[in-house]
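in:
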């Protein structure tokens, strides 16, 4: 056999004496692909600030971006100029100084029974929020207070303008209470309350007061305060005990067709009248 034929039958030697063929990858030794980084979880309760402003009816999203960039928008007291900034529904967002809300204005009237605290806290046992839990998905809150054992009308809303109207110390909104005392109210004390009392250096005034159906221990009294502390202040000062407190009217709103423990949404007419007060 010639030298040349021997080389043809054998494997040709690679250059440099080393293997020169490319390494083939099979399934068992294929390069491992890097796993994509998991996407950061987003809070479903968060929305972009420009959408929040648009939902509040202030302007379009595009215009909202302009207002944000020019420093007209603040969140929880801090001016925000960052595009794409996200907020939560419970944040306090203000446009040009005025607070805005992206949720539809909602007004719910409750005829409160005994045994429920007037609070939005979840650590106070049974509260009025439990009674209106199914009324709306918007974040409403009660205006003013009724004691746990007091009964009657309580208005809930997310409309800050209405809340401010109720809590305005100079204007306020009238509420009518039916009170039951532990003893008959003397006529002279009735007159003193009607004329105004000076208690601990402060004048305490009511809008109206009178006996109910000539029953001397049942009183109808109208005040503009949002709570019922004024009632306790007046009658404790005059040495009477309040046996029952029932709010029977808030401005033009009454308990008609609203059983104890039930709620209703205000009608369009009731809402319009409330806003014009």
């Amino acid at each position: 056999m010639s030298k040349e034929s021997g080389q043809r039958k054998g494997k040709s030697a690679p250059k440099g004496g080393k293997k020169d063929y490319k390494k083939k990858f099979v399934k068992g030794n294929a390069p491992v692909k890097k796993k994509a980084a998991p996407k950061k979880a987003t809070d479903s309760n968060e929305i972009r600030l420009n959408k929040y402003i648009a939902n509040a009816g202030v302007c379009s999203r595009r215009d909202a971006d302009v207002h944000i960039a020019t420093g007209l928008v603040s969140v929880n007291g801090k001016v925000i100029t960052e595009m794409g900034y996200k907020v939560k529904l419970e944040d306090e967002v203000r446009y040009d100084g005025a607070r805005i809300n992206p949720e539809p204005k909602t007004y719910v009237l409750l005829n409160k029974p005994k045994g429920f605290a007037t609070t939005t806290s979840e650590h106070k046992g049974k509260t009025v929020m439990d009674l209106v839990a199914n009324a709306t998905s918007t974040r409403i809150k009660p205006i003013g207070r009724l004691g746990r054992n007091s009964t009657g009308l309580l208005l809930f809303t997310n409309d800050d303008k209405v809340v401010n109207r109720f809590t305005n110390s100079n204007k306020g909104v009238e509420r009518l209470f039916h009170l039951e005392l532990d003893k008959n109210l003397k006529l002279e004390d009735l007159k003193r309350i009607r004329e105004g009392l000076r208690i601990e250096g402060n004048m305490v005034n009511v809008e109206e007061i009178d006996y109910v159906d000539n029953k001397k221990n049942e009183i109808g009294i109208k005040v503009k305060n949002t709570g019922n502390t004024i009632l306790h202040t007046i009658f404790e000062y005059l040495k009477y005990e309040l046996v029952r407190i029932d709010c029977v009217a808030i401005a033009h709103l009454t308990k008609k067709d609203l059983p104890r423990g039930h709620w209703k949404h205000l009608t369009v007419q009731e809402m319009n009248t409330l806003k014009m007060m």
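note: The chain has three domains: 46-100, 107-169+254-276, 175-250.
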